[in-house]
UniProtKB/TrEMBL annotation:
Protein's recorded name: TELO2 ARM repeat domain-containing protein
Species per Swiss-Prot/TrEMBL record: Parasponia andersonii
A Gene Ontology BP annotation from the UniProt entry: 'de novo' cotranslational protein folding
The organism's place on the tree of life at top rank: Eukaryota
Pfam families recorded: TELO2_ARM
Gene Ontology MF terms in the entry: Hsp90 protein binding; telomeric DNA binding
Amino acid sequence: MMEEEEGPKRKKVVEAQVLDRVGEVISGIKKAKHVDQVICSLHSLAILLFPLDSSLLSGSIDERYRNQILSAKVPSSDERNEWWQAFYRGTGFPAMARVLLREVASNWLACFPISARRHVYDAFLVNGLMTEVVQTLVPCLQPTGTDGLDVQSVRSNTERLIILCLLENDGVVQMAREFGSSCQTEDSGDEHFKTTVSMVAQVVSSIPDKAQMGAPVSLSSHLFFRQITIQLLSLAEERNLNLVNGGAIFNKSEMDSTFLFVGEIFSRICRRGSADVLVNEIVRRVLRLVQSILSSNDYSLVADVIGSNPASQFWLNMMLSIKDSYAVERMSEKFLHELATQRVSDVEAYWILWLLFCRNFAHQASFRAMFVDKFLFWKVFPVCCLRWILHFALLERPPDVNLIPKGHTNHNFLETLQHLVSVWSKREFVQSATTEQQICILFSLSY
C-alpha cells in the first residue's frame, strides 16, 4: 500500500520541481543581457531532460559562463526520465515552448552558436513528445499577439523546426508510435482519445496551408504530404521486420490506436486534394508485394498466402482504418486509375484490390454499393478498370478460367446485370449520360 501511495506522491513532487525550474529558466531568459546567459538558463533545464554532453557547449560560450555549464549536476537515467515525463506530459513544456518559439526565436536565436542551438534549443522540440510538440509548433506559423516580436524570425524558425522535427527526424511516424503506446493508459475506442487523434491529424495536415509565401519547398502540399505518407507507410515494413525477426508482437489495441492516427492523416490528405500523392506511394509498395506472392505461389492459394503473410497485415487493415467515406471513395478511384496507368495485369489488379479492400467489402455495405452502383453506373473508368471491378465486386474471383465462381456471386452478377439493363433502357439515361458513361454501361453488359 505504501508503494502505491509513493508513486503518485513522487510524481507530484517531480512535477512541482519541474515547474519551479521552468519558472527559473523563463525568468533568467527575460532578465538576460547577453546571449550566453540565455544559453546557460536553457542548459540548466536541458541537462535534466536529455543525455547532454556539456563539454560540447563549453567552447562556444564566454569563459565567464563556461564553469557554470561544466559544473552542472548530471542526473541519473531514471531521474532524467521522471523529469522528461513530468515536463512533456504536464504544463511545463507548453510554458517553456511559448518562450522558446517567440521571445528566444525573436531576440536571441540568431546569436546562438550552432552547437548551442542544437543542444539547448532544438533539443526541446526534437527530443520531445511529438504529439505535444506539433500542437505547439504549428500555431507559430501564424503567430498572434506579436507586440515586440520579430514576426518573420518567429515564422522562419518555426518552419525550420517543423522540417527538422517532422520531416528530417520522422516526427509523424513517431506520433503514430506514441498513439500506439498510449493504448496502455487510454482506450482507442474512447471518444476523448479519438478526438485527440483527430485534432493532431488536423494540425499536421494544415501545415502546408499555414506556411507563409516563400517557405521552404519541402512544406509545399505535394512534397510535405508525400514525405509524411512515406513515413507512415514505413510502419508496414517496420511491423513486418519485427514479426519476421521474432521481435515484439503488436497487440490489437496498439494496432487500433496506430491505425486510427494513420486513417485520420490519410483522410485529411485526400480532403486537401493530394489523394494522388498518397495512392502513388501505396500502389508501388503493394504491387511489389503482390508480384512477389504471385511469382512463388499457385493462384488458387494466393488468398490464404496473403492472409497469413506478415507483410500483408498493414495493408489488410489500412483502408479499414479510414472512416471518412469521401476519402475512401477518392482513394478507390485513384487506385483504379493508377493501376491502369501502371499497366498491371488483370490478375495483379484483382489481388491488389483484394489486399486493400477485401475487409471493407466484407464488412461495409456502403463500400460494396460504391463499387457496384456508383463505379459501374456513374463513374467513367478505362475499360480495364471495369473488368477489375466486375471480377472483384461481382464475380468475387480473379480472372482465371480455371477457378469456378461461387453460386452466390452468380446471383449477385445476375442482379447487377438486370440493374444495368434497367438503367440502359431508360430514355432519360441515354439522353443525359455522357458518351463515356454509355460506353461503360455497354461494356459491362457485354462482358
